[in-house]
Amino acid sequence: MKATLILGNGAVFHGQSIGATGDRVCEMVFNTSMTGYQEILTDPSYAGQGIVMSYPLIGNYGVNGADNESARPWAEAFVVRHLARRGSNFRCEGDLDTYLKQHNITGIEGVDTRAITRILRNQGTMNGMITCAEDFCIEDCLSKIRAYRVEGTVERVTRKAPQVCPAHGVQKLRVALMDYGVKENMIRCLQERGCQVTVYPAHTPAETVLEGNFDGVMLSNGPGDPADNVAIIAEVRKLYDSGLPIFAVCLGHQLMALATGAATRKMRFGHRGANHPVKDLAAGRVFITSQNHGYVVTAESVDPAVAQVSHVNVNEGSVEGLRYQNGNVCTVQFHPEASPGPQDTEYLFDRFVSKMEGGAW
Question: Which class of enzymes does this protein belong to (predicted)?
């Protein structure tokens, strides 16, 4: 079946339908990862978005239950150059096209994904639409595209009730994790370090968390504009004032910055991929990181009496981490839990454990 991708700037790309066949409008973003498409699809931070994979061959090792980063895929649409019809890997349990159909994800293949990536990189992230109709009206499609907004996504992806995840091996610590759209490997990274993790829904009051007498708090990744989460930001401020050790990642990093007086802005096209270089300023060392975000904390808005920039993006100098002057809070924009991506920065979980045990970051 034929399919068409229409971008908000009027660009039209013709290809073949994959996955579900219904019309789908969403925010189109690109990802530069060569592998990890299943982890990308199931990352809750992609709620409301369609993903353009710049690497040309996708689906070549199939799908399997172990690679899911949440209970279901959250991406709205999937755009690839070529979709492998058969997975070739000993872990393969099924093919990607069937997986997309099962989860009602609309897709298109046979389009020039690198040309699409260049448009999104040069002109900025924009909305788009995938349709399988052959007689569509371009003006009607553009009207729907321009009216679309990514909103209410944290409420969509967060857990509805607390969940206790036991430590792997001997339990040493208890961590409260605020689920704004958490990836499963973030929980596993804590469990593997002897932490029992209690995962709370996003809108859980800070008082409920503090009554649990936890050794530390983690603020997870998640989708959407951080500034939209006004009520959550107020609760994050209470957690900051509690003095507990706090480690925050991605959206959690942005929410903590907003809670302490800094500002965020939308990036032109964001960072999405498993190959982004980040410099740890204290260590004087560059790490390759996995990233997925379209907003960033503005450096000039950070009060030096509150926090200092600890990590920066090597490519364009944006803020990738903050170390707070109270000594209890460390936040990063990238994903130390990876999945997909390099595990170079997993050492940050060790530092969080050290802090909870009375040591330093």
Answer: ligase
Indicate if 27 belongs to the active site: no
Residue 250 is among the residues annotated as catalytic for this protein: yes
Tens digit of pLDDT at every position of the chain (361 positions): 999 999 999 999 999 999 999 899 999 999 999 999 999 999 999 999 999 999 999 999 999 999 999 999 999 999 999 999 999 999 999 999 999 999 999 999 999 999 999 999 999 999 999 999 999 999 999 999 999 999 999 999 999 999 999 999 999 999 999 999 999 999 999 999 999 999 999 999 999 999 999 999 999 999 999 999 999 999 999 999 999 999 999 999 999 999 999 999 999 999 999 999 999 999 999 999 999 999 999 999 999 999 999 999 999 999 999 999 999 999 999 999 999 999 999 999 999 999 999 998 8
Selecting among 253, 271, 293, 335, the annotated active-site residue is 335
181 known ligand binder: no
pTM of the full structure: 0.97
222 is in an annotated binding site: yes
What is the residue whose two structure tokens read 């991406």?
A: 75
The annotation status of 294 as a binding-site residue, yes or no, is: yes
DSSP codes of every residue in 287-301 = EEEEEEEEEEE-GGG
Q: Are 195 and 173 a contacting pair, CB within 8 Å? A: yes
Q: Tell me whether residue 295 is annotated as binding.
A: yes
Any known ligand binding at 17?
Answer: no
* Active-site choice (250, 253, 293, 311): 250
Q: Give me the sign of the Cα torsion angle 46, 349, 199, 331.
A: negative
Q: Is 337 a catalytic residue?
A: yes
Backbone angles phi, psi at 152, to 5 degrees: 65, 20
Residue 286 contacts residue 279 (beta carbons within 8 Å): yes
What is the rounded radius of gyration, in angstroms, for the C-alpha atoms of the chain? Answer: 20
Element (H, E) at 123: helix 113-123
Give residues with Cβ within 8 angstroms of 82, minimum separation 6. 56, 57, 58, 109, 110
